[in-house]
């Protein structure tokens, strides 16, 4: 299997606070990797370092064999290969659903309006939002907004999709529709890295689960390894705490 992303000795500090401490992990093409852990464990910071919304303090991020942190690397080009879905949707409120899904294609990928529209509608159909092409974000529920955000990211044809706790801002009754959309995507062979606190979902979709604690990868393995046979005491403690709440 080919590694699409390799992270080597990655560190990230905010002032004196070292949030990521020597992270080493690789993701193969077509793999679905979920990252779990307590708040403050460094999960979202790791994701934001992968797409360079945060600049790592040290280490390497290797994409298709090239270190994207090298001085001469084409960062804008790299960013076009990554799709990002945030907690808070980040849709443009002054644009309708279709425009939200075409504007990036037209400005960044230089696609024609017709081609961008065709691709956007295909992806809106995938997430069940095609009937809402003319709606503004203010007319949508949280779950609908998040499905539009997923369609928008997919419309850029990313090699890797990053999800940063995509259900954490949703009302409980809307979580299911977003998780179903992501489960469907996971079966298409798309490479996905997902920070989530939805344990049942992580167990169902993951090829690999990474448990982070205090800025390090404390344990990683298959869903079976982590959820059924965890080795580390802190993994067991975390799962016991989370699953007893559920």
Automatic annotation (TrEMBL):
GO molecular function, one term: ABC-type amino acid transporter activity
Subcellular location: Cell membrane
Gene3D superfamilies, per database record: P-loop containing nucleotide triphosphate hydrolases
CDD domains reported in the protein's UniProt record: ABC_HisP_GlnQ
Pfam family, one: ABC_tran
Broad class of the protein's primary localization: membrane
SUPFAM superfamilies in the record: P-loop containing nucleoside triphosphate hydrolases (SSF52540)
One GO CC term, this protein: plasma membrane
Signal peptide: none
Keywords attached to this entry: Amino-acid transport, ATP-binding, Cell membrane, Membrane, Nucleotide-binding, Transport
Entry membrane topology: Peripheral membrane protein
The ABC transporter domain, residue ranges: 5-239
Family in the record: Belongs to the ABC transporter superfamily.
Name of the featured protein: ABC transporter
The organism of origin for this protein: Enterococcus rivorum
């Amino acid at each position: 299997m080919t590694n699409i992303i390799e992270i080597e000795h990655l560190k990230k500090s905010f002032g004196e606070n070292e949030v990521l401490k020597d992270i080493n992990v690789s993701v193969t093409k077509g793999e679905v990797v979920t990252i779990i852990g307590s708040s403050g464990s460094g999960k979202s910071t790791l994701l934001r370092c992968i797409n360079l919304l945060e600049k790592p303090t040290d280490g390497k991020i290797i994409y298709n064999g090239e270190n994207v942190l090298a001085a001469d690397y084409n960062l804008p080009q790299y960013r076009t290969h990554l799709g990002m879905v945030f907690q808070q949707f980040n849709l443009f409120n002054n644009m309708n659903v279709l425009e939200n899904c075409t504007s990036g294609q037209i400005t960044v990928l230089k696609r024609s309006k017709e081609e961008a529209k065709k691709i956007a509608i295909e992806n809106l159909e995938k997430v069940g939002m095609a009937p809402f092409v003319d709606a503004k974000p203010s007319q949508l529920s949280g779950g609908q907004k998040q499905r539009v955000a997923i369609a928008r990211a997919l419309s850029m044809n990313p090699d890797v999709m990053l999800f940063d706790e995509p259900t954490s801002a949703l009302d409980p009754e809307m979580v299911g529709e977003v998780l179903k959309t992501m489960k469907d995507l996971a079966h298409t062979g798309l490479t996905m890295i997902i920070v989530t606190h939805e344990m049942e979902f992580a167990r169902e979709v993951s090829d690999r689960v990474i448990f982070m604690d205090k800025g390090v990868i404390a344990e990683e393995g298959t869903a079976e390894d982590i959820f059924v046979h965890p080795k580390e005491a802190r993994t067991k403690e975390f799962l016991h705490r989370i699953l007893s709440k559920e």
